[in-house]
Amino acid sequence: MDRPTTTTPDNPWLALRTLTPARIALGRTGTSLPTTAQLDFQFAHAQARDAVHLPFDHGDLSQQLSAAGHDTLLMHSAASDRHEYLQRPDLGRRLNEDSAERLRAHAQANAGGVDLAIIIADGLSALAVHRHSVALLKRFDEQAKADGWSRAPVVLVEQGRVAVADEVGQLLGARMTVMLIGERPGLSSPDSLGVYFTYSPRVGLTDAARNCISNVRLEGLSYGMAAHRLLYLMREACRRQLSGVKLKDEAEIQTLDDDSADKKTGNFLLGNT
Predict the structure, then answer these.
(1) Does a structural domain hold residue 68?
(2) pLDDT tens digit string along 54-83?
(3) Strand partners, 179
(4) Of the N and C termini of the chain, which has fewer Cβ atoms inside 10 Å?
(5) What angle, 0 to 180 degrees and rounded to 10, lies between the N-to-C axes of helices 164-172 and 97-109?
(6) Structural domain count of the chain
(7) What CATH number is given to the structural domain containing 163?
(8) How much is the pLDDT for 260?
């Protein structure tokens, strides 16, 4: 007697998977997921866990930044190690005493403050920082040359969270801070980089005082687009002297099929001709 064959039911939504990395149209085998979908999920989960625990390679990052023309300062948050960092988010938001003292000394030796302090922290995905931070800064530098902002050395913060940029900016006397940090890994994005901008940084600010540009990576928001949006926010912040929920990202983006290409758009990349 012939044995019955087991087949996977047809999946009419399968074509939609080409349009998104989200886990849709996974199919089924009986009442369960197909083996391939289950294995893919376990692999993505392992990648996310690895990204959280990957050590911050600040030495290699410092060399790359130096090659791109940036001086660097290495700092450490008040979280002594990764375990404490994950258990005590508050400690990741402040520098440890040694780092804070060294930053004060640097600021005193370079009195007068700066317009911009750029901070890079491992956050919850050092992988994202390793892959995307230098490339993003290169695109930012290309577009920011004409602004003439004075800058502090790039501050690398190990075991840092977003709010540590407020203390760094305050100690350096910076008018603005830009924080590049690894975002919490998702099951389809273990290397997503976040960009946080704050005008007039100081300890005690809430997230309402900053602007966020999220999902900077090759499969997400491009480096050029992220730099474009960041510069728009910075220029508007300088003009209006604020950031956060009161400052909206209204940067105009020129598309290839825009029939108003010859009109004035306000896009600083395209000019007003």
Answers:
(1) yes
(2) 999 999 999 999 999 999 999 999 999 999
(3) 119, 196
(4) N
(5) 30
(6) 1
(7) 3.40.50.11240
(8) 42
Q: How many residues does the chain have?
A: 273
Task: Please tell me the predicted confidence (pLDDT) of residue 6.
Answer: 54
Vertex 100: Cα angle to 97 and 102 (nearest 5): 110
37-62 burial code (b ≥16 CB/10 A, e <16) = beeeeeebeebbeebbebebebeebb
106 in Cβ contact with 155 (< 8 Å): no
Cα-based torsion angle of the residue sequence 223, 225, 230, 232 in order, rounded to the nearest 10 degrees = 150
Local structure of residue 200 (DSSP, 8 states)? S
Q: In what order do the strands lie in the sheet with 154-158?
A: 72-76, 154-158, 114-121, 174-182, 193-199, 210-216
Q: How confident is the model at residue 9 (pLDDT cuts 50, 70, 90)?
A: low
pTM: 0.84
**CB contact at 8 A, 21 and 217:** no
pLDDT band at 2 (very low <50, low <70, confident <90, very high): low
CB distance 209 to 121 below 8 Å: no
Q: Are the C-beta atoms of residues 218 and 185 closer than 8 Å to each other? A: no
Residue 198 lies in a domain: yes
Whether residue 103 lies inside any domain: the answer is yes
Domain hosting residue 82, numbered range: 57-240
Is residue 257 scored above 80 in pLDDT?
no
Residue-wise pLDDT for 157-195, tens only, equals 999 999 999 999 999 999 999 999 999 998 889 999 999
Q: Is the residue at 260 inside a domain?
A: no
Sign of the dihedral through C-alpha 87, 129, 127, 132:
positive
Q: What are the start-end ranges of the H helices in 118-254? A: 126-144, 164-172, 223-240
DSSP string, 236-248: HHHHHT--STTS-
Confirm if 80 and 160 have CB atoms less than 8 A apart: no
